[in-house]
Amino acid sequence: MEGVRIQNKLKLLFGQLVEPNYVMNNYYADGLINKLSNCSDPEISEIGNMPLISDLIIDSLDHIDKVHNTVQVFLIRTLAIVSTNELHFTKMFFKQGDKILKGFTEINSSSMNASLRVAYMEVALAIAKHNSGISWLLETGVWKEILTLCNEKRTVFVVRQTYKFAALFLWRLNDLCDITNIKLVLSFVLKPLTQVDFMIIENLSSEEEDELAKTIDPTLHILSAVLGTSNRIEKHSILIEYLVKTYQINTHLYVIFDRIRREETVLLLGKLVFWFVFSKTFLTKPAEVGVKFTMDDFLELSVTYFNIIQFLVQRRNAILTLDFCTTCNMISWKICKNKEKIVWVAEGRQLVLRNQMLFMCLVPLLVFVKNGKTEGVNADQRLEEFTAKLLNSTCEHTAKAAYAMRSLLEELDTIPIIVQSVKKLSCLKGHLDNEQANLVFQALYYVLREYDPIDDYGVAKHEDGVQQYENNQDKVLVMTYVMDTVLCLLKNHDINWRESFEKFLPPNLSLLLESKPGSSMDELGKLVYMKMHDRSWEVRDSALELLLVCTEISFVNYLESKPGSSMDELGKLVYMKMHDRSWEVRDSALELLLSCTEISFVNYLASKPGFSMDELGKLVYMDMHDRSWEVRDSALELLLVCTEISFVNYLGVQAWLLHRRAGQAGVHEDARPLVGKFPPFQKQILEHNLINVAAAIAFNDYESYVQVSALKCLGAASKICALWERLTTHYPNIQDHLLFILCNDQEGIVRKEACNVLTDLYQNLKLTPTFKKSLYEHMVSSALSDFHWEVQIAALKFWRIVLQSLLTDQGMLDGTFPPVTFSRETRKIVTLNEAEIQRRLIKILDELSSVGLLTILIKLLQDDTEVDVLECAVSLSQELLDILNKYKVPDCLKPVPGETVEDIMCHIKEERDDNAMVAESAGEVENPDNVIESILNATDINLLASIYERHMTLQNVKNEDSTQPKIKLLKVASPFAYVQFTKDKDFKVVIEEKRKWNDGIRSLSSLLDDVLGIYELNNEVNSLDCY
């Protein structure tokens, strides 16, 4: 039935398309095209197999010249989608082939609309995927018109689509073993390379080179697209064999390579030469299962690589040489990433082919460091050891090329080259194995050392050298790229810390590492600390992010070094929880990991008074006042970690974990916040008043992301007595401030975090009955009326904590009641039989009813609730119901006469909005003319004081009104009403239906309604219905 409706809508749509002056809405048209392109969608697959869609397109193409551009583009894009089906293609092109051919013949015309040209390219790519389409392209010669597009000034998107088509077209001919047409197409593609006799060209001016490049560059890009097609050149192919052996493409490329000096073209030529030599290897020895390669198979490749490097070095173009080396690294990785390493033995040394190419990319880094005049014999010795290690893993030709590159770099300006070098290293992301990543990391480490203003012995380097780095923008760029690359390596590779780091530490730090297992981050921590003082905010921001990532790895290292210890158990626990099915458990595990990872770094800071720890607070304080919000945000993230660590005992992390578990269950061992267990950090936070500054940022910063980070710090501070007391001394009304943010802040993410902080306060502090009552009222309002669904979920999490707290107060442990418990009311041991448990649970229900939770659940379990909020409410409700049903509580509940769900819903009162209240308050202020008149007539010398007092009274009233919750419960649901409402409903079915409804608004039928404008025509549909 639904299929019939969709067919009718399609007929209606195509009927509208051919009407005069009909213009399509691009947004809805793109949405419908994207939907039709999703072949995995069952309803699209069903429609695609029907003859209706091709019939509609055939009829519409009769009017293609008369309709608006937007309609033309939509029809041709639809044609491209349907043409992927070979049967539809044959039918449509048989009847409307002339119309389609006419469009392709005009594809190079300047009068054709750019979007329409892209649409025809989509058709070309679609039909090139099956044999019938290839046959039509060859018969009509349309492929020539398409390939000519790349010779004209077109948009980048069109040119890329042309290269993609060329590669697809040629490989399809290769699959068909159509050597005749392969030669025909290649002769057309390679014509720009053959029509110019480069052998007789001796000199070219810059203008002549540019003109020549415009002719040959498109051909080179097409060849690059052909070679870059995945998993093609590793197998024997007619196409590559013709290019390499018959046409001898490399000979032509070498000749052009020798004549052209334009850098972009030279790099492209060098890339193609390297790629074709690579492919030549697989012509004689295809990469099939079981085939093993040796160094002898890649001798020609190695010779070509080193010859091109030597050629570029002789041209004294260091940057182009680096570009070529980086490109070769990426090509070899793409081809050989899943193959065994090519290893050979020379002079008793085991050499890896892939590493030879990488080594050239590291040469500029070593030259830069060597020329940096690093102070200290130890630093020079370690650099020499690292260089010797690299040279020991290189062959003779690599070493010669490296020395040639070094000599060139020493004659040129090093800084611009090193900037390009670290840029290119960042491009190798995803193209390195772990061994190569460690080599790059080690080289970058020495660049970091160059920026360290302190030498190995803690003595400041010469002031001129430090200023030299600070005042050079290029060197700031170097540092930024280096730190970004280091961060990328740490995130994506397994860095061997002992191999990559500890061997290069100065003697004094090596001794420290021996006495502090797990502190392999110490030297890097020192360097990162210095970068956090940098003038450039990009460098400071990268340093803060790098610090967090590095400490995670250090913590993992520590766990590995402590088998059988309590930390080992913690590691196992965190690992298991990070793979838990529940996202909430995984999130908590990651939180714990982030907090624990800082411990080894903390040990180093704590052991170095006068250097890092004493300066850390000052550094965070300065960055919290930085003009850049990114830096302020990063500083607050670091403050959050420091605050979390402040109460973590290094030798008792498991006890801390148990406390977290108890806190999450609502257990309150103490009425006061936890006493800090990590004095060094706590001392820094107190001395520099960092939590108070965080509070000021939370209440006043203009950037919402920074406010959120600051609020997180306040939530963490509530766990530590000293920090919270300092905060409340300066902000005695901080709880009211948080309620104000929850009620009035315009940003949903800020309100959400305020809600989380208030939840922390509820867990960690002993709140006054008055504030607790106000907190309950605001949480009721947030759960029911906040427009941001994440705020509603945060409020429901608060109510979950309230429920768990009440259950714990009544003696429940881990979801069950023990046989006996201690009663706080009677101060005696009480036996928890069935009757006593029921009495306690009924008491809890009465409490939940009075604070409004049961009313919240009844309201949110209605059909009009957002599906994510509904799911959270169902989870909370089910948790409560399971406990009640387990102890047979529903049978003990009594109904309230006259109570109905409808009556309860009618007594949820929505207060007037803030604007109305402000307007009303403004109305109470006296008319300015009357005020002036009263001043002129007054005899009271305290007139101004009276006016000021009256003004302040109005201000106070306004502030109090503005913190009032937006929702008030005039009547609360009884436990009986709640149980009766929930017991007969299957909310899982409701959630499933809502999810289907959400999917339905993205269905084909719904998208057709959007395009047809049915919602606008249907008077029964609410015009404000935005799904």
From TrEMBL:
KW Cytoplasm (keyword) present: yes
Superkingdom of origin: Eukaryota
Gene3D superfamilies linked: Leucine-rich Repeat Variant (1.25.10.10)
GO cellular component: cytoplasm; nucleus
Principal cellular location given in the protein's record: cytoplasm
GO biological process: cell population proliferation; DNA damage response
Localization per record: Cytoplasm
UniProt keyword terms in alphabetical order: Cytoplasm
UniProt family annotation: Belongs to the BRAT1 family.
Descriptive protein name: BRCA1-associated ATM activator 1
